Backbone:
């Protein structure tokens, strides 16, 4: 039995003695698990920065190091599969430190009975995604579990890249006055997955935005060094990523709802299901906090890149209400954009 | 987006705010009945932009919030059974029973599935003949037709492994209960547009007359809500108390007749206990005699479960419009979406959750 009382801050863990799905939702439950269970157990100052990747120094070289696991269902979805997702997810986590990803590992937990032909297709996609991102898959592992103990395949990837000399980008480095830019349409991946998982159709088919962002990041860094934060808003969406940055940097964030690039199909699907696109996962988008005087040139450079064509300024970091994200609504009111507790739950009516 | 952007237009909204400001000469307290309207109001910041004299009171029209704790406990008991697949709309999963919620039952091994339509639950019952499939059929007149269809469909298919835990509630008796209450401050109602799209508007004319209170059928987009408020204020200022339809693009006087026919066949009127409010006579629907065989409460013999509400939770007063969510001493302290004491803090339509999520507990510049 675990001794809950020995923990630093046991309270928030007590009301769910078992893992619930919300612990994987990227909201408050996920954050509490990390803060109250893993951080005290691991005791690492680097981990405590809670960036998309950890930046460590080895022999005078700064490495961005990251790991991620993929349990997506279905394995194949419009525009991609779990394989591209696993490679691009780790590539993007590394790129969010400003590093160029170099080498990656891949671990596979396979379910007994999974068709080999599906695994081959996934592996092919991973190879293609790695080549496209300029990263090498250099080590791996496979394990098999009994039928019924996995959804076909789970993939875990790790990787590292080299952070250029003198470059410091991290979730705690946003400053009041920074401009917040998103690299394109939000909510696409999450709604594409949901549309196939739940058998919902929304007129225009939605395909995932899954993509490697290291090329876009390189183009951005070539344009300005005044980027303070980069974050890929995956599970938990833009709202959760902004809240994490606001908390880590002790700044307030003010966004303008009208300026959010939300494609019509995503908006329509979210309206039907009662979901908020701000909380829906993205797999090929990034948020950048950049010094105000560099914002316009950066935006232009991003729009010149194929993955940043719909980039938009969506808000700013401010000194008021540190740790809190606020949105100006379309009719001119304001609302707080909080982190969700667990997963977004579709509404009854 | 067509049919949405038109009703969120900032210029038109500004004009409606101006109109409301111009015609308002005195303080008025107006209740929006439906939780969907509460969310639209808070999410868009409508209440901040209305003149100070207009107070919006958040009514009991959130199905998740008014479902009694006792019924949640019954749902939990059924969902925990190993032979049961329990199907529910998403936002019921986090509603606390007396010691657990459905998410916790799921983590303990219960087979609980989020569905988007009760017909999905019928499909699951067809696919899993060895399991008992139970659908959590709650809601107002809005969700009832789909639930009724599911029952009829299950009967046609001869499914013996499908049942429904039913706790439907009705808007007009709730309006009567509020107006009969000696402490009620409500002077006008924004009636729930989607309820009226099913039931029509004919039930509300007599209520407006009986209680001498304006009732304006209202939609859910910012401009809909503002138009509802404008028409209600105009009536109040002129001393009128009539039924008006400000949601004519979705609501007709007679409503959806084929839905009403199905409802009359599958359900019959019954007394219901409303969470936080108490028992209201003839305020709900249960399965009619003909379809009683689909009643999960009888099939799983959970009628004996009796539960009392948390004494700290004042959601009843919130639902009756007697206090604002942030006037409850437990708001944001003992009671948060993370550890909700009452359903108004859990449901995405609950007034407390709306206040918490959209930040009415802090002063934002």
Residues:
């Amino acid at each position: 039995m675990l001794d809950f009382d020995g923990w630093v801050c046991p309270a928030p863990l007590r009301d769910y003695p078992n893992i619930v799905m919300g612990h994987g939702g990227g909201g408050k439950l996920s954050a509490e698990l990390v803060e109250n269970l893993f951080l005290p157990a691991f005791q690492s100052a680097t981990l405590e920065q809670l960036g998309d990747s950890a930046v460590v120094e080895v022999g005078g070289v700064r490495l961005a190091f990251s790991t991620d696991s993929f349990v997506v269902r279905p394995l194949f979805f419009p525009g991609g599969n779990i394989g591209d997702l696993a490679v691009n997810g780790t590539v993007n986590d590394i790129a969010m430190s400003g590093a160029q990803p170099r080498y990656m590992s891949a671990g596979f937990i396979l379910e007994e009975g999974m068709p080999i032909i599906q695994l081959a297709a996934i592996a092919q996609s991973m190879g293609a995604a790695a080549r496209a991102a300029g990263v090498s898959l250099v080590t791996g592992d496979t394990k098999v579990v009994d039928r019924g103990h996995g959804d076909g395949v789970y993939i875990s990837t790790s990787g590292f890249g080299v952070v250029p000399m003198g470059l410091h980008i991290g979730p705690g480095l946003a400053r009041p006055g920074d401009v917040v830019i998103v690299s394109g349409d939000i909510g696409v991946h999450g709604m594409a997955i949901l549309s196939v998982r739940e058998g919902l159709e929304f007129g225009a088919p939605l395909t995932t935005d899954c993509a490697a962002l290291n090329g876009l990041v390189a183009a951005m860094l070539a344009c300005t060094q005044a980027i303070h934060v980069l974050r890929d808003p995956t599970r938990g969406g833009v709202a959760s990523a902004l809240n994490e940055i606001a908390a880590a940097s002790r700044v307030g964030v003010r966004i303008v709802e009208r300026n959010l690039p939300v494609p019509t199909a995503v908006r329509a699907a979210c309206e039907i299901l009662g979901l908020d696109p701000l909380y829906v996962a993205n797999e090929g988008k990034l948020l950048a906090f950049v010094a105000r005087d560099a914002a316009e040139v950066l935006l232009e450079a991003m729009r010149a890149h194929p993955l940043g064509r719909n980039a938009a300024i969506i808000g700013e970091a401010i000194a008021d209400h540190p740790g809190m994200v606020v949105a100006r609504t379309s009719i001119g009111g304001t609302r707080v954009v909080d982190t969700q507790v667990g997963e977004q739950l579709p509404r009854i009516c | 987006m067509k049919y949405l952007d038109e009703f969120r237009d900032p210029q038109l909204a500004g004009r409606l705010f101006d109109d409301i400001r111009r015609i308002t000469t005195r303080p008025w307290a107006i209740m929006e009945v439906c939780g969907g309207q509460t969310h639209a109001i808070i999410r868009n910041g409508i209440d901040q932009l209305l003149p100070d004299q207009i107070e919006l009171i958040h009514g009991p029209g959130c199905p998740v919030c008014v479902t009694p704790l006792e019924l949640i406990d019954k749902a939990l008991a059924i969902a925990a059974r190993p032979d049961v697949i329990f199907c529910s709309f998403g936002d019921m999963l986090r509603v606390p029973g007396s010691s657990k919620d459905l998410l916790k039952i799921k983590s303990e091994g219960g087979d609980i599935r989020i569905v988007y339509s009760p017909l999905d639950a019928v499909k699951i019952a067809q696919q899993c003949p060895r399991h008992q499939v139970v659908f959590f059929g709650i809601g107002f007149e809005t969700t009832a037709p789909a639930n009724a269809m599911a029952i009829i469909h299950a009967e046609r298919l001869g499914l013996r492994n499908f049942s429904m835990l039913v706790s439907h509630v009705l808007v007009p008796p709730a309006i009567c209960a509020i107006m009969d209450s000696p402490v009620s401050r409500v002077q006008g109602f924004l009636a729930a547009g989607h309820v009226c799209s099913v039931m029509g508007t004919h039930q509300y004319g007599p209520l407006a007359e009986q209680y001498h209170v304006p009732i304006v059928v209202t939609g859910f987009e910012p401009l809909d809500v503002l138009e509802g408020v404008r028409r209600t204020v105009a009536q109040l200022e002129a001393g009128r108390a009539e039924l008006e339809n400000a949601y004519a693009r979705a609501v007709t006087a007679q409503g959806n007749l084929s839905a009403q026919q199905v409802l009359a066949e599958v359900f019959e009127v019954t007394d219901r206990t409303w969470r936080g409010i108490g028992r209201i006579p003839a305020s709900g629907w249960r399965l009619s005699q003909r379809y009683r065989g689909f009643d999960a409460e009888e099939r799983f013999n959970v009628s004996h479960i009796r539960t009392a509400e948390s004494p700290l939770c004042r959601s009843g007063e919130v639902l009756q419009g007697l206090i604002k969510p942030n006037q409850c001493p437990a708001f944001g302290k003992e009671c948060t979406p993370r550890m909700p004491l009452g359903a108004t803090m859990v449901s995405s339509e609950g007034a407390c959750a709306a206040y918490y999520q959209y930040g009415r507990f802090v002063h934002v510049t």
Summary: Chain A has ten helices and 14 strands. Chain A has two domains: 53-167, 179-336. The two ends of chain A are 42 Å apart (CA to CA).
